[in-house]
């Protein structure tokens, strides 16, 4: 399993980790910085993590996915720091013998990461900034 | 007792780490949350507030003891 927090995401490294002759399917989900949010222009995102807990929660999710689906390899990599529009900030990667398991596990991992892993993003607009999801 | 702060809770409290005064006598997660809401009313406006103990999410009735690593977990927004 490749689970880490990084300054810059290397997609090739993630793909190389997932590659396995026993896997007929490799699924990669790449989350990137969007240049707009709720009608406003986004100029930058800042990502912050509670490192120790984020890694622990990422491992919990990986363990759940490994128990639930017959996976060959798995990767969860999230970036921290200031990120410009278009830049990858999270990569979920899964490989499995057949595609169903990879598709399902990939979806599960990104959905759960967004709910439970202690990582926060601040959106910067031209005139102000907000912590995403902080308020109703 | 020291509390690690992240995201908007760090902005609200204005420090990266909060030291709870001895006299506050907070023994559970729930007591800590209530005390924080009284000290920093802006905390009450958040969509949610979780507390972690030693890098795991804690329940309201979990006990707080010396030596634990405690942190406030405001609404997460990774990905």
Radius of gyration computed on alpha carbons of chain B: 12 Å
Query: What is the general shape of chain A?
Result: elongated
Order of helices and strands of chain B: EHEHEEE
Spatial arrangement of strands, main beta sheet of chain B: 2-1-5-3-4
- Count the strands of chain B? 5
Pair of chains with the largest interface and how many residues each contributes: A-B, 29 and 21 residues
Tally of extended strands of chain A? 9
Instruction: Please work out how many helical segments of chain B DSSP would assign.
Output: 2
Mean pLDDT of chain A: 97
Summing up helix and strand content along with how strands pair, one would put the structural category of chain B as: alpha+beta
Count up the helices of chain A: 3
Major sheet of chain B: size, sense and barrel closure? Answer: 5 strands, mixed
Order of helices and strands of chain A: EHEEEHEEEHEE
Uncertain residue segments of chain A:
none
Give the CA-based shape of chain B. Answer: globular
List the quaternary state of the chains.
Answer: heterodimer
Alpha-carbon distance between the two ends of chain A: 35 Å
Please specify the SSE layout and strand pairing.
The complex is a heterodimer of chains A (136) and B (79).
Chain A: E1 2-6, H1 11-18, E2 25-32, E3 36-37, E4 40-49, H2 51-68, E5 71-79, E6 81-83, E7 88-96, H3 99-116, E8 119-125, E9 129-131
Parallel strand pairs in A: 1-5
Antiparallel strand pairs in A: 2-7, 3-4, 4-6, 4-8, 5-7, 8-9
Helix pairs in contact in A: 2-3
Chain B: E1 2-4, H1 7-13, E2 17-19, H2 29-39, E3 50-53, E4 56-57, E5 70-73
Parallel strand pairs in B: 1-5
Antiparallel strand pairs in B: 1-2, 3-4, 3-5
